[in-house]
């Protein structure tokens, strides 16, 4: 898909504040409201804009502990992979799960209330998923950069 200068500026504006009105976006990108509205509709239809949601502060919602967990499976059979992925999809504390290359099979992003809660998530759920061989945790000490924005240059 090819995005022109105006599409990119519209996307950048929405990434700053998805609650902007069409009129506000139009003013920001130097177009009138009608073409901005048409472009937004096209970006949504094409799946470039997949939805609108608020950015929440996990700390203020009671989840100050941010961790990454790597998982290695015992084997790569369809049954083990399907069981693992279904368990992860059902775990509300796992906010992202990626199948990765390298020494580990999966990288999980987990939110927890505290270290004891992370321990429960790890020892009571993740290591007990049939087919899981290795689990390693990395606790985030400080966010240096945390941006939900995707580069649109």
UniProtKB/TrEMBL annotation:
PROSITE patterns: HTH_ASNC_2. The keyword Transcription regulation applies. The keyword Transcription regulation applies. Keywords: DNA-binding, Transcription, Transcription regulation. InterPro entries: ArsR-like_HTH, AsnC-type_HTH_dom, Dimeric_a/b-barrel, Tscrpt_reg_AsnC-like, Tscrpt_reg_AsnC/Lrp_C, WH-like_DNA-bd_sf, WH_DNA-bd_sf. Pfam families: AsnC_trans_reg, HTH_24. One of its GO terms (molecular function) is sequence-specific DNA binding. SMART domains: HTH_ASNC. GO terms for cellular component: cytosol. Residues 3-64 form the HTH asnC-type domain. This is Lrp/AsnC family transcriptional regulator. It comes from Croceicoccus ponticola.
């Amino acid at each position: 898909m090819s995005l022109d200068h105006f599409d990119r500026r519209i996307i950048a504006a929405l990434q700053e504040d998805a609650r902007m009105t069409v009129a506000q976006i139009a003013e920001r990108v130097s177009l009138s409201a009608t073409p901005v509205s048409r472009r937004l509709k096209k970006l949504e239809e094409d799946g470039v804009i997949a939805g609108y949601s608020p950015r929440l502060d996990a700390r203020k919602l009671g989840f100050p502990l941010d961790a990454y967990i790597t998982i290695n499976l015992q084997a790569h059979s369809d049954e083990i992979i399907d069981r693992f992925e279904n368990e992860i999809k059902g775990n509300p504390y796992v906010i992202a799960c990626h199948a990765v290359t390298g020494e580990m099979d999966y990288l999980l992003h987990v939110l927890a209330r505290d270290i004891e809660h992370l321990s429960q998530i790890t020892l009571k759920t993740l290591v007990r998923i049939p087919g899981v061989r290795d689990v390693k945790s990395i606790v985030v000490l400080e966010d240096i950069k945390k941006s939900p924005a995707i580069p649109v240059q």
